[in-house]
Design the sequence.
């Protein structure tokens, strides 16, 4: 594991600990690696009006955009499930795709072990901004 991957995984675990999830009690953390080497984190933030809940991955993307980042290379995602790797929900996969398909995705267990995959593998035949320019 490279130092940057180790840091990304560590930061997603720390972000999970900050999750606001009083309804589901399902904390999720995410850490995004920008093309220039910055790491931006996010956690899920629930709401009593369930539809207004925001996932960790989207929180991280929104923070990154506010901080001026638009190009990304990787994301690490974690939750409290210990016996299998869990990926981002479909909506989050689509939001990540907005910023390109060449993401490395680290599906991370609570103990820090991870499975490396890609956004293209998690969201095959994806709709992307490129489709809007073609008639």
Sequence:
């Amino acid at each position: 594991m490279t130092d940057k991957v180790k840091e990304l995984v560590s930061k997603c675990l720390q972000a999970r600990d900050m999750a606001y999830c009083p309804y589901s009690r399902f904390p999720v953390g995410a850490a995004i690696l920008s093309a220039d080497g910055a790491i931006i984190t996010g956690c899920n933030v629930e709401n009593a009006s369930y539809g207004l809940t925001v996932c960790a991955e989207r929180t991280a993307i929104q923070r990154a955009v506010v901080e001026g980042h638009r190009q990304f290379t990787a994301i690490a995602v974690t939750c409290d499930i210990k016996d299998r790797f869990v990926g981002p929900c479909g909506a989050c996969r689509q939001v990540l795709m907005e910023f390109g398909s060449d993401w490395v995705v680290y599906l991370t267990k609570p103990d820090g072990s991870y499975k490396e995959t890609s956004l293209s593998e998690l969201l095959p035949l994806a709709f992307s901004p490129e489709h809007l320019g073609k008639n």
